[in-house]
């Protein structure tokens, strides 16, 4: 089978120049890489700004019309997860210049520019977080250096306050600082997400989302009034929020049961109403003046489209794609509640149920959406059913579902995958003797764990950049992920070794019987290569049939070539190990237009 052409796609709206809505900057496919482009809404012309070896994703545009981007290695090499720096050039062209010369090289953790040109940036450098402030093209001053993993949560319009956002579950979820590093406020977690300062001149109001245990609500903070929880504005599933330019209204994007809803909230009158969007998923949404909303919409059978409620011309989407198959939902009853799945079936073509591939999402604080996925497209076109399960721990189903790990890390999720498989087999929707698992990152971890815990149940597995040994991964990963491990397991590997061992696929490697393809990345700092090699050695020692594939990339990537290579190898692997799909499958799948599955 010939691998499909693969277009890199980053699920974000264009950034709009604050003083000229006609000028935008966005990321799009450039010969298989994600690169930065400008867009002129008057002439409807796009111009490529960056051209790096490994692709570019982080970008911004300021009020003076300067385009910013982050070179991953600081010299245009774009080397995945290596250290880089911010650069800029004008929307109309001109030289490429260092944005914050003299700033430490690192990994981008946010950048914002006020209307008067004050720049705030956060980088992760040498296992520490560094917050910086300055002016475009000038040496910045260091505001804060800390061991705590943080990102830039926002800057007030006058540049007088910046917010640093840690994990929502940290004891201090948000820290508000002055430019000289003085702490104005610390806002406690757990369950507090920073959404940014109002952009209205003269305002210093910070928008937040709070988890109250059974619902999510909007909250705001000012130095004068402190933290105010808007209990009247509650949602039963996860939300994100952005200020409208008027500083009074808020646009809320709600993830609910694999799809999205938009709401316009008036904080003054305590009213809210729905913003109409088609059924499917809104991957990103941004409010504009006069109530306008730009949003990025998709569904399983429709590649992402950019839409604007005020009719302004947005950058064009990729070519139209015909997605084969029938796409529906399935709710599987279990003793712990109903498990929701997105089911894609190939067109009928035989009496027997089709073989099935369970695509296991990453996270765990994420979910599978009614959204286009090139892997789903390719599998269905090849004659496979595809099942995407939003197991316990997934977002989009409320706080209790997100925090439900009664059987322990990994074991709870594997139980949900098994329950959905049994339900679909019982109903005759998929073949009981031809089911495989395919996952990336945390999803890849669950693939390995499921094959070890339930040998014989699954007929094949594909694990891409997985966690295979929790203790070894913990010691080699990033500070942010080490902190997440401690929260998830209740301690470090030295403090609770039995919990890490019980959750680790390495513990069950000798029990695996299904053929397994494991894909690792040599420069992966999230799921480090060493712990994957240790797991592969354990499979070899146990005589377990397996294949290994190595990518010279980091965990996340902006180059489509690596994704095509994995897709091609994985489809070939599955074809050789599952009963051959019905003859209706084409020899060459349709050309998908999609992007890498996220961690």
Helices and strands in order, then pairings?
Elements (H helix, E strand, L loop, with lengths): L14 E3 L2 E11 L2 E8 L4 E4 L10 E3 L4 E6 L13 E6 L2 E6 L8 E7 L4 E8 L2 E8 L5 E6 L4 E5 L6 E4 L6 E6 L5 E6 L3 E6 L8 E6 L4 E7 L3 E10 L3 E5 L5 E8 L2 E8 L4 E5 L5 E7 L5 E7 L2 E7 L17 E9 L2 E9 L10 E5 L13 H8 L3 E6 L8 H4 L8 H16 L8 E6 L1 H12 L6 E5 L5 H7 L2 H11 L7 H7 L12 E6 L7 H14 L3 E6 L8 H18 L22
Parallel strand pairs: 30-31, 30-32, 32-33, 33-34, 34-35
Antiparallel strand pairs: 1-2, 2-3, 3-4, 5-6, 6-7, 7-8, 9-10, 10-11, 11-12, 13-14, 14-15, 15-16, 17-18, 18-19, 19-20, 21-22, 22-23, 23-24, 25-26, 26-27, 28-29, 29-31
For the structure shown, list the relevant keywords.
four-stranded antiparallel β-sheet; eight-stranded mixed β-sheet; 16% helix; 599 residues; alpha+beta; disordered N terminus; 35 strands; 9 helices
């Amino acid at each position: 089978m010939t691998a499909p052409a693969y277009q890199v796609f980053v699920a974000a709206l264009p950034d709009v120049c604050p003083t000229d809505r006609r000028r935008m900057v966005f990321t799009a496919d450039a010969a298989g890489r994600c690169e930065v482009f400008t867009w002129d809404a008057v002439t409807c012309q796009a111009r490529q700004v960056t051209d790096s070896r490994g692709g570019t994703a982080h970008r911004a545009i300021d009020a003076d019309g300067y385009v910013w981007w982050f070179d991953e290695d600081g010299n245009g090499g774009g080397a995945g997860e290596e250290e880089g720096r911010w650069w800029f050039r004008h929307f109309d062209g001109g030289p490429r210049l260092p944005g914050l010369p003299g700033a430490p090289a690192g990994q981008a953790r946010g950048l914002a520019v006020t209307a008067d040109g004050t720049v705030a940036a956060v980088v992760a450098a040498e296992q520490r977080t560094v917050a910086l402030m300055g002016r475009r093209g000038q040496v910045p001053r260091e505001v804060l250096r800390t061991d705590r993993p943080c990102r830039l949560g926002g800057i007030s319009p006058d540049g007088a306050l910046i917010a640093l956002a840690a994990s929502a579950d940290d004891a201090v979820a948000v820290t508000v600082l002055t430019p000289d590093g003085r702490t104005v406020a610390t806002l406690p977690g757990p369950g507090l997400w920073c959404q940014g300062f109002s952009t209205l001149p003269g305002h210093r109001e910070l928008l937040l989302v709070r988890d109250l245990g059974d619902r999510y609500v909007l909250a705001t903070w000012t130095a004068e009034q402190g933290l105010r929880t808007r209990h009247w504005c509650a949602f039963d599933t996860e939300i994100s929020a952005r200020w409208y330019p008027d500083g009074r209204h808020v646009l809320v994007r709600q993830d609910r049961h694999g799809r999205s809803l938009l709401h316009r909230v008036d904080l003054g009158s305590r009213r809210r109403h729905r913003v109409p969007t088609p059924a499917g998923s809104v991957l990103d949404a941004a409010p504009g003046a006069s109530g306008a909303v730009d949003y990025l919409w998709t569904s399983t059978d429709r590649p992402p489209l950019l839409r604007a409620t005020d009719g302004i011309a947005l950058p064009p989407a990729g070519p139209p794609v015909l997605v084969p198959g029938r796409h529906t939902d399935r709710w599987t009853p279990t003793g712990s509640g109903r498990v929701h799945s997105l089911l894609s079936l190939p067109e009928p073509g035989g009496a027997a149920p089709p073989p099935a591939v369970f695509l296991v999402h990453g996270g765990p604080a994420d979910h599978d959406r009614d959204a286009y996925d090139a892997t789903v497209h390719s599998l269905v076109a090849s004659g496979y059913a595809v099942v995407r399960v939003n197991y316990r721990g997934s977002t989009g189903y409320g706080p209790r579902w997100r925090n439900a790990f009664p059987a322990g890390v990994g074991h709870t999720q594997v139980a949900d995958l098994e329950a959905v498989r049994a339900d679909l087999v019982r109903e005759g929707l998929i073949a009981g003797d031809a089911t495989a698992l395919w996952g990336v990152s945390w999803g890849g971890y669950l693939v390995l764990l499921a094959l070890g815990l339930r040998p014989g149940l699954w007929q094949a597995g594909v694990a891409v950049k997985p966690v295979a040994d929790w203790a070894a991964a913990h010691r080699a990963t990033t500070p942010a992920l080490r902190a997440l491990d401690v929260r998830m397991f209740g301690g470090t590997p030295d403090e609770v070794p039995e919990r890490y061992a019980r959750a680790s696929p390495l513990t069950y490697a000798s029990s695996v019987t299904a053929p397994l393809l494991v894909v690792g990345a040599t420069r992966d700092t999230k799921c480090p290569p060493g712990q994957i090699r240790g797991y592969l050695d354990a499979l070899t020692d146990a005589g377990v049939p397996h294949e290994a594939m190595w990518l010279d990339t980091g965990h996340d990537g902006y180059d489509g070539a690596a994704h095509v290579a994995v897709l091609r190898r994985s489809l070939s692997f599955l074809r050789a190990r599952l009963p051959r799909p019905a003859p209706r499958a084409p020899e060459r799948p349709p050309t998908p237009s999609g992007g890498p599955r996220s961690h």
